[in-house]
Amino acid sequence: MFSPPSVVLAPLAGGPSTPELAAAVSNAGGLGFVAAGYLAPDELAARLARARELTDGPLGVNVFVLDEQAVDQDAVEAYARELEPEARRLGVQLGEPRFDDDGLGAKLAAAAGTVEVLSTTFGCLPAAVVTGLQAAGTSVWATVTSVDEARAAREAGVDALVVQGAEAGGHSGAWADGGEPMPLRDLLTAIAAAVDLPLVAAGGIADASAAAATLEAGAAAVQAGSAFLLAPEAGTSDPHRRAIRAGRETAFTRAFTGRRARGIVNGFMRRHPDAPSAYPHIHHVTAPLRAAARAAGDAEAINLWAGVNHARTEALAASEIVARLRP
Questions:
Q1: Secondary structure of 242-306 as H, E, C letters
Q2: CA quadruple 234, 160, 140, 68: dihedral positive or negative?
Q3: At residue 301, what are phi and psi to the nearest 5 degrees?
Q4: What angle do helix axes 318-325 and 19-27 make, rounded to 10 degrees?
Q5: Which of 197, 180, 179 is nearest to 188 (CA)?
Q6: Contact status, residue 224 vs residue 306, Cβ threshold 8 Å
């Protein structure tokens, strides 16, 4: 089984993730991740090949594991109507709400045996798939947000758990969109007492002292995302970078994707506080809005995913950030 270094890069799907960032973290002695989320399978393969060109260190890939759930179609349609003024203002058409599994099968095929670690978000892979990945030489980690999820992942045979606390930026990795996220320290303590697996702690870890405290609480490694958003190697958009530097408050929202995620509070979040739980349906509806706003540099109309301690993020090279996080 692959033993993680003390510092792990969070996947950062949707823009900030780049091969250059993953490779820089690995070259600095951490574990760099390439996010598969939202990419076409051939693009993921190209990014993995590029990362391999840039590092001889370990690499990880993160994939979404989604099961189709019933959604309130009337609520989705009502929310789309609510968003029409946003679309007119930005000069785009809303996307069509739909379910898809983000090309999971093809992405697993691209990653198997080519990376040291494959982690999952929003769910856990079936035991047979976990075993197949392990046989190909890839360790499997599952993101969990509760003791029940941790136990289920253990039963599926995963090698480690990414324990994501409420402080984390971006989407909650919860297997179902509901419930109140637990603070990292409480969650880590509860899972460590229930499951005997290596734990990778995620959520609000901004410096070496926070990392050390988390390791003392039972984690084998820490995973950081917001700490890397201003790195030159990251693909973070300019409006997102400006918002990170401004250090505003964060909150949970479903406004952009229909699934609970933590981001910097902006105008879009305030205007649309009651988005339905419907992922990835709402993600597809708002994708054209977000793309147009991002191109226009409009930080008030895009998702600004960030954790609670994002104000401490500095514009440093990824290697320096790894060094600052290492206990």
A1: HHHHHCCCEEEECCCCCCCEEEECCHHHHHCCCCCCCCCHHHHHHHHHHHHHHHCCCCCCCCCEC
A2: negative
A3: -130, 15
A4: 50
A5: 197
A6: no
Q: What pTM did the predictor assign?
A: 0.97
| Phi, psi dihedral angles at 143 (to 5 degrees) | -80, 130
CA dihedral for 187, 140, 203, 284, sign (positive or negative): negative
CA torsion sign, 134 to 136 to 139 to 143? Answer: negative
pLDDT in the model for residue 179: 85
CATH topology of domain 7-325: TIM Barrel (3.20.20)
- Residue 1 reports pLDDT greater than 80: no
Digit-coded pLDDT (tens) for 27-61 = 999 999 999 999 999 999 999 999 999 999 999 99
Domain boundaries, the chain: 7-325
Four-residue CA torsion sign, 92, 260, 161, 247 = positive
The per-residue pLDDT for 4 is 80
**Structure-token pair, residue 290:** 């977000």
Q: What is the DSSP string of 203-223?
A: SS--SHHHHHHHHHTT-SEEE
Task: Give start and end residues of each alpha helix (H) in 28-72.
Answer: 41-54
- Residue pair 169/226 in contact (Cβ under 8 Å)? The answer is yes
